[in-house]
Amino acid sequence: MLPRLASAALAVVLAAGIAAGMVTGCSPEPAPEDSPAFATEEEAFAAAEETYRAYVDALNQVDLSDPETFEDVYAWTTGDLNASDRKGLSKYHADGSTVTGSSEIALIEPGEIDHQTLNIQMSVCLDVSAVDVRDASGASLVSPDRTAVQSLTVTAVEGAQSPTGLLISSIGPREGQPTCSI
Questions:
Q1: Helical H runs in the chain?
Q2: Which phi and psi angles does 50 have, rounded to 5°?
Q3: pLDDT digit string (tens) for 63-74?
Q4: Which end of the chain is more exposed for a tag (fewer CB within 10 A), N or C?
Q5: Which of 3.40.30.10, 3.10.450.240, 3.30.70.270, 3.40.50.970 would CATH assign to domain 3-11+39-173?
Q6: Cβ contacts of 25 within 8 Å, gap of 6 or more
Q7: pLDDT value of position 38
């Protein structure tokens, strides 16, 4: 993972528009009711967890010297997180940085779910202790004060182009339960 990810991790709301047309002399047909994307909350959280695990796996496969390896990361994100990942990975590539080690998900627990917007939050403990990012001269870019296991809130939102039906829209610091430690 990268320094931004190492300190808090690297992130939309998809809007759906409904257009109704009327033909003169005909009554408009009622719009079909949207069926929920997932039958149960458990199904929604399972898809969100699968999405986040795929995102972390993609980050662990990044080779900063090869921008083609960034594409799998971008495929799992949307909105501001996608823009941030694109900017950060491109900068590390341009600067000649290298990354070693892998992040490991220590814990994922369901958080809140907004059924209206299909906004799913998860509480995550991400172990970044094995990750190091170095600049072109070999100096570490990781803060010596970095917490080895990051306590995060991860948000997944609807993403039709995703195999899971979800994309990661934000990752940020989290306080409270569950606590994260080595």
A1: 3-7, 41-60, 71-75, 79-95
A2: -60, -40
A3: 999 999 999 999
A4: C
A5: 3.10.450.240
A6: none
A7: 86
How far apart are the C-alpha atoms of 109 and 98, rounded to whole Å?
Answer: 31
Tokens of 75: 């495929």
pLDDT (mean) for 46-53: 97
**Beta carbons within 8 Å of 119's beta carbon, 6+ residues apart:** 13, 113, 155, 156, 157, 169
Tokens describing residue 94: 């341009």
In degrees and rounded to multiples of 5, residue 13 shows phi and psi of: -110, 125
**Alpha carbon distance 72, 85 (integer Å):** 11
Q: Quick: pLDDT tens for 117-168.
A: 889 999 999 999 999 999 999 999 999 999 999 999 999 999 988 999 999 9
| Token output for 50 | 């699968």
Token output for 40: 């149960």
